[in-house]
Amino acid sequence: MDADAALVRRLSHIQHVLLVLSGKGGVGKSSISVQLALALLAHDPTLRVGLLDVDLTGPSLPRMLGMEGRDVLASDDGWVPVYLDASKARLGVLACMSIGFLLSSSRESVVWRGPKKNAMVKQFLAEVRWGELDWLIVDTPPGTSDEHISLLESLRPLLMPPSPSAPLAPPLPTLSALLVSTPQAVALLDVSKELSFVRRTRLPLLGLVENMSGYVCPHCGDIVGVFGTGGGEDFCRRDCEKRQPGMQLPEGEEEGEGCRFLGRVPIDPELVKLLDAAAQSQQPTGSAIDGGAGGGGGPARRKTLVERYEAIPSFPVVAQIAETVRTLVYQQVEREANEQGKRLVAVERRRRATS
After folding, report:
1. The pTM is what?
2. Rounded to a whole number, what is the distance in angstroms from the first to the last CA of the chain?
3. pLDDT in tens, 222-236
4. DSSP H or E run through 245
5. Is 290 within a domain?
C-alpha cells in the first residue's frame, strides 16, 4: 500500500482533526491540547479522543498525562498508541502518540534535520493504529517549522473538496486549527505570523485562546493579571476590523471572517498539581488504584484523570471553549455537506443537459 493510500485509510476512521498552533513557544499550547481532550471527554464520556504530539524536539504530552516510561507497541497494522485511564467507569478512550515514547530516556534530545522530521510526521499520521476516533487533537511545535509544512502537506486531501465525478471514497475528517497565545504583546506579534500562515494555507481557523490570562489565587479564588489580560481579545477585535468588506487584505490571503476570540484560560495551580501528580496515578487496569475487576470488598475505585480534572477551578472555562469548538466544527461539517450537495446537483444538471 502506498503512503497516500495508507494515510487516507487511517484518516477515514477519524471524524475531526484539530491542530493546536502557536506563534511563540511557552504559551501553554500543550496544556491547552490536553485540557481540550479532557474537556471533550468530560462532556461525553463515550468519546474516543486521540492526542498526537508532533513537537519532535520538545515532546511534553507523555509527562503531562503521566505516561512517561510507557511503551508504544508495534503490530502488523502499525503502532499502537498509549492509552490513558483504562477504567470500566468510562466507555470513552484517550489515546496518545508522541516521539517521547520512542526515546530511551525523557532527557534524550532529538537533533534531526528537516527530511527526518518530515518522515516522522508522515509516519505518525499513516502508521498509528488509532482505530475509530471522534477527535484527533494535534499538538504542534511553535512557529511555522518543518513539522507544520509536513503536516499540512500530508493533510492536504482534507482541504481539497471531493470531486463529484470521482469514485466513491471513504469519508475524510474535518480539519481545523486553533491558535494559542498569552496576553503579552510579544506573544501576540508572533501569533499574528501564525495567523498569516493559517490563512495562506487556507486552513479553517476556529479562533484564538488567550492562555495564562491571570492567576487563580488558591486561597480566595480571585484572578490576578500577572501577564496582563485582554490582549488576545483586542488582537481578535483588531483583526476583525481589518477584514471588514472593502478593506485591502495582505497578499496571498482570501476574504473571510476575522479571527474569533474563544476565551481566556487563567493559570490554575490546581491544574499544575493535577498534571504533576498524573504520573503517580497511572497504574495498570485491575489494580487497587482504579478498582479494576476486584470483588465488593476491594478498595474504592480512584477517580480517573478526567474526573479529577472536572473538579479544578479552571475547568468550566475550558469546558466552555470546548463547547464552542464543538459547535464551530459541527457547523463546518454542515457547510461542507451543503457544498458537496451543490456540487452533486451541478454535475447531475450537466449530465442531463448533455444527454
Report:
1. 0.87
2. 38
3. 778 888 778 999 999
4. none
5. no
